[in-house]
C-alpha cells in the first residue's frame, strides 16, 4: 500500500520539533510495510492536492508566518479547501492551525487572513500560554483518548459553530483558556496547539490519521498493531509528572 | 571610595561568601546564583558600584553556544599576557551569577580598580535587559540559534534588540562577530568598520559549509545572504576526532599554525572569537600560539574522564545546533561507542523538550558505529522515543530514569577499547558531573 503526504513549508514552519510528527507517520507506515511518500510544499508551489492522502502543517515564528500567509492564500487556498472537502487527512499544529481559521489578529500590526477552512478566529493575547498540556479527545463515538503535549502560544482561538473541538482540556490552557476546549476538527482536518511533538507520544492519534487515509484511499484500514510499550510508558510518565507539578506559565518580554 | 560604598561592598562580600560556603557545604547545587540573588535583594543597586571598578572596562561574551569555552580561552590568553581579569565563576551567566562572581574575588577596595578587565559571559536575554548598565567596551557574539523557546523570545528579535543597544551605547562598543553565522552578521552594520571584527572559518567548499552547521536565517534565505569578508579566519583545518584539531590562523596577511586540544569545529570558532578579542586589545598574535595549545576543555564541555581504563567523555548539549555539532564530531571516527543521553526538563533547561526532534540524530548512525544507547534524566522516555524514530540501526535502547544506575549498568557492559560518551543537557550535566568526578579519574 502507498500513501502520499504533503508537508507544508517544512523549512519555514518547523518550530518546536514539529517535524517529529511527519517522522512518526513515516515510521509507523514503514513498520507496517506501507510506503509513505513525503512531498515538500514550499512558497510558490501550487501542489495538486487531490493527489494526496495526508498533509501536515506546523508552526513557525511570527516573521515566517507573515511570509507564508500571503502565499497560502494566493497559491494554495482553493486547492486545499477542495481537498479537505474531499476528505484529505490533515494535521495542523499551532501556526498552521491558526492559519486554517478565518484570521489571526495580533495585538499590534495587521490582521493576518487565514484560509477559513476551520470556522474559528484567533486573537493575540498579552502573554503566552506555556507549559505541558493534557487533553481528552473523543475521535470517534466511544473512542476516548488522552493526549499529552506542550503548548506555547499567545493566540486565543475561538471556535464557531462550523467546526468541532478536538478535545477537552484536563491540564493546561488550550484554545483560549476560557471554554476548556482544545483544537478543532472539520471532516478529516485536525488543528491543535499541542507540540511535543504531538504524535510520537500519542501513537494512537498517529495511527488514527493513517487509518483515515487508508480508509479514504483503499476503503479499508487494517493496521497491524505495533509494539508501543515505549510510547505508552513515556506518556504515562509524562502525565504523572505534569499532574504533580504546578503548571508553568510565562510572560512574553 | 566613600565610606558608605565601602560599607555596602564589604557587607555584600561577606553575605556572598557566607551563603556561597554554606550552599556548597550543604550541596545546594553549585551555589553560584543564590548568593548574588540575596545580595541583589538587599542592595538592588550594587552593580552600580561594581561595574566601574575595572580599569579597561567590560568584555562581554554572548550567544547561544560557545560562551563558556570562548570566555575560558579568552581569560587564559589575557592572563598569560599579564592582565588581571575578573570572570564568571563556573559559567553562571545570569545577573545573580555575575554578582556572585564579582564579590567572590579580591575587591581591592583600597585601590581605584579591582582588575584590568571584567571578562564575562552573559546569557543573551540577560544581556538585552542589562546592556545599558554594563556598557561593555567589547561585545562578542558567538552565534545565535533557537534555544529554549519557552523561556526566550525569537532569535530574530534578540538580534534586533542587540543592534539597538549597541548603536545606543554611551561608550564606543566594539563588536566581535562570527562571520559564518547568517543570523548575527547584520549586527555589524550598526558600528563603524574599524569597530567591528568578523572571525570565522574560511568557506572553501561545500564541505566546510556543512561542518559549520549554522542555523539558516529564514528571514532572508541563503540565496540572498552575503557573508562579510572575514578579518580573522582559520583555514587548512585538520580535525583529530576527540583529541582536537590543527589549523592556521590568518590575520592581516600574517598566519600562524595552531594546535588546539579542544575537539570539534565549533571549538575552532570559540578559539577564534577569543583570539579576535586579544587582537582588538593589541595582544600580539605570536604570543597566543603556545597558550592556545595548552587549553583544556571547560566544565562538562567535551571533558575527558577515565573509568577503570575506559575513556568517558561528557558533552553539554542544550539545543539542536549544539547537539548537531557533537554528532558531527562523533561522526569523525568509527569505533565502538556506547552513548548515555541525559535529558532533563527543569526550569533552567527549558521545560519544553521538543527541541530534541530538531536534532539530526539520524546522522549519528551513518559512521559512528554506536553499539548501544541508554537514556536517562527526567525526560528519558522522550529521548528514547527520539532515538526510536530516527531510523537507528538495530541496537539496544534502554530507558532508565535514574542516571547513576544507568551509568553503572552501562559501564558494566563496556568492553575493552570502547568509548562511553555522555551527552547531557544543562541541569543533567550539572547534576551528573560531580558523580563522574567521584567515580572517575581525570
Question: Mind explaining what this structure looks like?
Answer:
- The complex is a heterodimer of chains A (253) and B (442).
- Chain A is α/β, with parallel strands linked by helices and 253 residues long.
- Chain A has helices spanning 19-30, 62-85, 95-99, 198-201, 203-218, 229-243, and strands spanning 2-8, 35-41, 54-57, 89-93, 103-105, 112-113, 120-140, 143-159, 167-171, 181-182, 184-186, 189-192.
- Chain A has a single domain (2-243), classed as 3-Layer(aba) Sandwich (Rossmann fold), CATH 3.40.50.
- Chain A is built from 6 helices and 12 strands.
- Helices cover 37% and strands 19% of the residues of chain B.
- Residues 219-223 of chain B have low confidence and may be disordered.
- Classes of the chains: A alpha/beta (253), B alpha/beta (442).
- The A-B interface holds A 11-12, 14-20, 23-24, 27, 61-64, 130-132, 150, 152, 195-197, 200-201, 230-231, 233-234, 237-238, 241, 248, 250, 252-253 and B 125, 146, 149-151, 153-156, 216, 218-219, 347, 351-358, 378-379, 381-382, 384-386, 388-391, 399, 401.
Q: Which SSEs are present, and which pair or pack?
A:
The complex is a heterodimer of chains A (253) and B (442).
Chain A: E1 2-8, H1 19-30, E2 35-41, E3 54-57, H2 62-85, E4 89-93, H3 95-99, E5 103-105, E6 112-113, E7 120-140, E8 143-159, E9 167-171, E10 181-182, E11 184-186, E12 189-192, H4 198-201, H5 203-218, H6 229-243
Parallel strand pairs in A: 1-2, 1-3, 3-4, 4-12, 5-7
Antiparallel strand pairs in A: 5-6, 7-8, 7-9, 9-10, 11-12
Chain B: H1 3-25, H2 34-42, H3 46-50, E1 58-62, H4 67-80, E2 85-87, H5 95-104, E3 117-121, H6 124-134, E4 138-141, H7 155-167, E5 174-178, E6 196-201, H8 206-212, E7 232-239, E8 245-251, E9 254-260, H9 265-280, H10 288-293, E10 303-307, E11 310-316, H11 320-330, E12 337-342, H12 364-367, E13 370-376, H13 380-388, E14 397-399, H14 403-413, E15 419-424, H15 426-439
